[in-house]
């Protein structure tokens, strides 16, 4: 397109400015080490962060002061008895380490911050707090309790039927309560209540781990909920979760099982007179397994008999004489750690869109969206009536549920009525991936208002927005959002519906990068790095699934290598070097392990397990009924990835202060490159390997192609897409992770847009055209053999979401991690009229909105306070740069504010 002379219009940043501080500076959104729940942190020097808001353009922080106090009263007086940083000349507002007095276990502290900027001084921020939890195992009092056995009405078989365990205790605190905190480790899942009321809003807590390695505790402030000087009742329900695994006595060589549910709870009460009391689990507690939750299983659902309800069992005065004394049980074995990532929560409610009658007094409910969670139901009937809810992602041609792709997961919730006029119920300890629900056992025909879908995923904010002039791009984005969110389950799982739901590493390698623009997921992925670290064996091997609930140590580069790629993503997006420093030794050990076992004398990494997993069959007919679970190992892929990881390790060595390792990495990288070229490059034809898309994509993406050969190799890639594939992709999980960015980096964003908007097979749009509301596991998911055919996977998104944000939106961290200084450089391919993309980075919201209008290009941007952006303008634009520092060509640097460009 021909560009006219560029004009720049400066717009003052007014946004959503509060009248109380318009024209000034406000400090907002204080964070402690990114912690979601400040009631429990076990870091002695957590990192403090904040954002700025202001109506001023070009706002830059010049200094700050942090005050930390042991009480709100002292803080209000400006007395930082724990730490007063004084006025520090610094523009830093992210990752400031606490540098005050050492804190004691179970200590709650309060803090605030003020800043000085080039536009004036802020007021003090609002008051925030954090609590140093129970740092050491010896800080915990009492013992683990549970029932390490099945009861007569339970069956421990391949498909176990084991109910929930209920525990209770009563206690009388003194009158002068100053504060009270509950610390709980309830395995596999728990729900805590005090005096008949649930504590917190989490569901399916705590976050899952390899319980033999580490277990996470949650903490809750009970200061305003305890009845001083009176009896109080505490109750805990334990669900099975991943601890008592979903399949018992089945493939023990593969599936980990940890035992029966168990509980450790401390309620620490601090009194005004300086004394402390701890209420802890012991054999003085009472428990039962004879409650209404008769079975709970992540794969199979929950069975609830309302006739077995226990009444006010978690309130004072309940008669528990028929219950059993709690029994001491063996601890789980893993280290006790504060949970820093979010618990799951009911994040949305979704109303069904249709209900239809089926034969046999059955009804089919359509939620209108493939979702993850469960149903809350409203029913009435006779005592003993049985209502069953069976969940599926899609229907067969005859309108019945399609269940074959769920394998042996029973996916059924059962509710036994007690015969009251109206009964409302939802499960506690299971979840489902579904759009359709078959409902049976109802006394009366149901109405839509009898059902509410509870959408469940980790309690993380959506921080990105994406919309364009192309409805298909927008729908694919929505499908991606629903799939990604639904598969956040304290770890990123592959799918939410069948008998799997495992945290496969390969599924999220590049995908997690794009997800970070959509969700505030850094705490989740930091936790996942821990899971991978704990799953590493002593010899250095890393599994394909972490936590290693399935013992798959197949040894390959692409799945375990996600370890490095997630760490790299977190560093680039947040500038937190600790994720690199903490995991550097384990990464180095794994790469040495792979080199020793599988590198040939010619420096080819010979071991691969999956190849380019789930490449699309050449046509829909060729894929009909096909089993997609076929491994095609590729030494080209594994060798290319080893080269890529060597480059990452060179950067990681610098960040970790291990510069002495760099020469070894450099030498090995160069040797691997030479071996790769010799083994896989076909100089006569100008392509790699078998000239598959992924064979050429990886060396182009990783910078492995000699300069004089780049155009030839890229032409082969384009020819494969345009001629052989008739304008379509032919990549599987691996190649799709590098597809969109590589095409754009080599000047073919138009071709990337074509792939992104295709509606014929194979494409993301083909999924949409065939009824998908999430992302399929397979490109041919509407015809493939059902044994491996999830309709809610994220792995085939590849780098599409990353391309949406970093290319169509142009928002990139660039060479400087963490977005203190970032790049705005959108591609604006013909065929797309406009794109509006926003992302809340650590400093605030970045906005990029471009539009073709009246034969002109318009581009509006927003740069958050305390940052600056490197603006890359189209080459054909001719801006007047006299008032800006010219970096190179059309690149200019702009401070915070809103700007509008026209050319």
TrEMBL record:
<dbReference type="InterPro" id="IPR012341">
    <property type="entry name" value="6hp_glycosidase-like_sf"/>
</dbReference>
<dbReference type="InterPro" id="IPR008902">
    <property type="entry name" value="Rhamnosid_concanavalin"/>
</dbReference>
<dbReference type="GO" id="GO:0030596">
    <property type="term" value="F:alpha-L-rhamnosidase activity"/>
</dbReference>
<protein>
    <recommendedName>
        <fullName>alpha-L-rhamnosidase</fullName>
        <ecNumber>3.2.1.40</ecNumber>
    </recommendedName>
</protein>
<dbReference type="InterPro" id="IPR013737">
    <property type="entry name" value="Bac_rhamnosid_N"/>
</dbReference>
<dbReference type="InterPro" id="IPR008928">
    <property type="entry name" value="6-hairpin_glycosidase_sf"/>
</dbReference>
<dbReference type="Pfam" id="PF25788">
    <property type="entry name" value="Ig_Rha78A_N"/>
</dbReference>
<dbReference type="Pfam" id="PF05592">
    <property type="entry name" value="Bac_rhamnosid"/>
</dbReference>
<feature type="domain" description="Alpha-L-rhamnosidase six-hairpin glycosidase">
    <location>
        <begin position="462"/>
        <end position="807"/>
    </location>
</feature>
<dbReference type="InterPro" id="IPR035398">
    <property type="entry name" value="Bac_rhamnosid_C"/>
</dbReference>
<dbReference type="InterPro" id="IPR013783">
    <property type="entry name" value="Ig-like_fold"/>
</dbReference>
<dbReference type="Pfam" id="PF17389">
    <property type="entry name" value="Bac_rhamnosid6H"/>
</dbReference>
<dbReference type="InterPro" id="IPR035396">
    <property type="entry name" value="Bac_rhamnosid6H"/>
</dbReference>
<dbReference type="Pfam" id="PF08531">
    <property type="entry name" value="Bac_rhamnosid_N"/>
</dbReference>
<feature type="domain" description="Alpha-L-rhamnosidase concanavalin-like">
    <location>
        <begin position="361"/>
        <end position="457"/>
    </location>
</feature>
<feature type="domain" description="Bacterial alpha-L-rhamnosidase N-terminal">
    <location>
        <begin position="176"/>
        <end position="347"/>
    </location>
</feature>
<dbReference type="GO" id="GO:0005975">
    <property type="term" value="P:carbohydrate metabolic process"/>
</dbReference>
<keyword id="KW-0378">Hydrolase</keyword>
<dbReference type="InterPro" id="IPR016007">
    <property type="entry name" value="Alpha_rhamnosid"/>
</dbReference>
<dbReference type="Pfam" id="PF17390">
    <property type="entry name" value="Bac_rhamnosid_C"/>
</dbReference>
<feature type="domain" description="Alpha-L-rhamnosidase C-terminal">
    <location>
        <begin position="810"/>
        <end position="878"/>
    </location>
</feature>
């Amino acid at each position: 397109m021909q560009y006219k002379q560029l004009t720049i219009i400066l717009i003052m940043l007014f946004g959503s400015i509060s009248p109380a501080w318009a024209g000034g500076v406000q400090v907002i959104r204080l964070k402690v080490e990114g912690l979601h729940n400040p009631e429990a942190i076990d870091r002695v020097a957590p990192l403090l962060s904040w954002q700025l808001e202001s109506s001023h353009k070009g706002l830059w922080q010049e200094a700050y002061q942090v005050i930390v106090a042991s009480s709100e009263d002292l803080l209000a007086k400006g007395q930082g008895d724990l730490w007063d940083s004084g006025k520090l000349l610094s523009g830093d507002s992210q990752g400031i380490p606490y540098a005050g007095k050492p804190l004691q276990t179970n200590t709650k502290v309060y803090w605030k911050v003020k800043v000085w900027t080039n536009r004036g001084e802020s007021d003090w921020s609002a008051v925030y707090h954090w609590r140093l939890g129970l740092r050491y195992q010896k800080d915990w009092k009492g013992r683990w309790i549970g029932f390490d056995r099945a009861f007569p009405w339970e069956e421990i078989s391949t498909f176990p039927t084991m109910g929930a365990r209920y525990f209770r205790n009563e206690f009388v605190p003194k009158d002068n309560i100053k504060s009270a905190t509950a610390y709980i480790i309830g395995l596999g899942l728990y729900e805590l209540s005090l005096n008949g009321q649930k504590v917190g809003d989490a569901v399916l807590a705590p976050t899952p781990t390899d319980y033999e390695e580490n277990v996470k505790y949650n903490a809750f402030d009970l200061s305003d909920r305890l009845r001083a000087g009176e009896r109080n009742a505490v109750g805990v329900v334990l669900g099975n979760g991943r601890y008592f695994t979903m399949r018992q006595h089945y493939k023990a060589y593969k599936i980990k099982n940890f035992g029966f549910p168990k509980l450790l709870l401390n309620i620490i009460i601090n009194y005004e007179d300086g004394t402390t009391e701890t209420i802890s689990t012991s054999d003085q507690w009472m428990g039962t397994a004879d409650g209404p939750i008769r079975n709970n299983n992540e794969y199979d659902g929950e069975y609830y008999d309302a006739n077995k309800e226990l009444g006010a069992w978690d309130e004072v005065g309940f008669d528990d004489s028929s219950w059993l004394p709690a029994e001491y049980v063996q601890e789980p074995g893993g280290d006790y750690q504060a949970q820093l990532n979010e618990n799951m929560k009911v994040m949305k409610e979704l109303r069904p869109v249709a209900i239809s009658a089926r034969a046999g007094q059955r009804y089919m409910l359509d939620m209108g969206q493939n979702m993850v969670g469960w149903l809350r139901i409203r029913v009435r009937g006779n005592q003993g009536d049985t209502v069953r809810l069976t969940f599926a992602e899609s229907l067969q041609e005859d309108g019945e549920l399609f269940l074959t792709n769920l394998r042996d997961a029973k996916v059924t919730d059962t509710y036994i009525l007690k015969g009251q006029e109206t009964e409302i119920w939802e499960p506690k300890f299971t979840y489902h991936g579904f759009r359709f629900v078959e409902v049976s056992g109802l006394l009366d025909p149901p109405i839509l208002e009898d059902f509410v879908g509870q959408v469940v995923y980790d309690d993380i904010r959506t921080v990105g927005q994406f919309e364009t002039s192309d409805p298909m791009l927008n729908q694919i984005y929505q499908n991606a959002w629903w799939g990604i969110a639904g598969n956040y389950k304290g770890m990123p799982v592959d799918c939410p519906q069948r008998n799997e739901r495992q945290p496969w590493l390969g599924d999220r390698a590049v995908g997690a990068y794009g997800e970070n623009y959509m969700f505030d997921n850094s705490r989740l992925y930091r936790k996942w790095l821990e899971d991978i670290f704990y799953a590493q064996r002593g010899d250095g091997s890393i599994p394909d699934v972490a936590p290693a609930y399935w013992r798959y140590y197949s040894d390959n580069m692409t799945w375990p290598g996600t370890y490095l790629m997630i760490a790299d993503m977190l560093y680039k997006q947040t500038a937190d070097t600790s994720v690199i420093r903490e995991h550097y030794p384990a990464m180095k050990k794994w790469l040495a392990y792979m080199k020793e076992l599988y590198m040939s004398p010619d420096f080819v990494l010979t071991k691969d397990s999956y190849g380019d997993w789930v490449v699309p069959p050449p046509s829909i007919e060729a894929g009909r009924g096909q089993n997609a679970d076929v491994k095609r190992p590729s030494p080209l892929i594994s060798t290319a990835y080893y080269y890529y990881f060597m480059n990452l390790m060179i950067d990681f060595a610098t960040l970790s202060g291990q510069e002495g390792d760099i020469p070894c990495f450099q030498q090995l990288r160069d040797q691997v490159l030479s071996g790769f070229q010799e083994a896989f490059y076909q100089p006569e034809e100008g392509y790699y390997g078998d000239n598959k898309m992924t064979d050429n994509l990886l060396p182009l993406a990783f910078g492995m192609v000699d300069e004089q050969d780049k155009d030839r190799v890229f032409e082969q890639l384009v020819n494969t897409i345009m001629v052989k594939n008739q304008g379509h992709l032919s990549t599987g999980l691996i190649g799709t992770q590098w597809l969109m960015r590589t095409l754009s980096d080599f000047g073919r964003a138009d071709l990337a847009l074509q792939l992104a908007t295709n509606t014929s097979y194979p494409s993301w749009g083909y999924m949409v055209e065939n009824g998908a509301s999430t992302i399929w596991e397979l490109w041919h998911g509407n015809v493939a053999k059902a044994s491996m055919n999830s309709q809610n996977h994220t792995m085939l998104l590849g780098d599409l979401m990353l391309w949406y944000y970093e290319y169509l939106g142009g928002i990139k961290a660039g060479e400087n991690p963490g977005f203190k200084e970032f790049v705005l450089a959108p591609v604006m391919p013909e065929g797309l009229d406009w794109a509006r993309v926003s992302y809340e980075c650590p400093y605030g919201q970045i906005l990029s909105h471009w539009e073709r209008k009246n034969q002109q290009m318009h581009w509006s941007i927003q740069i958050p306070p305390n940052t600056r952006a490197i603006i890359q303008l189209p080459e054909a634009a001719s801006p007047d740069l006299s008032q800006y520092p010219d970096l190179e060509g059309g690149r200019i640097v702009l401070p915070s504010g809103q700007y509008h460009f026209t050319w």
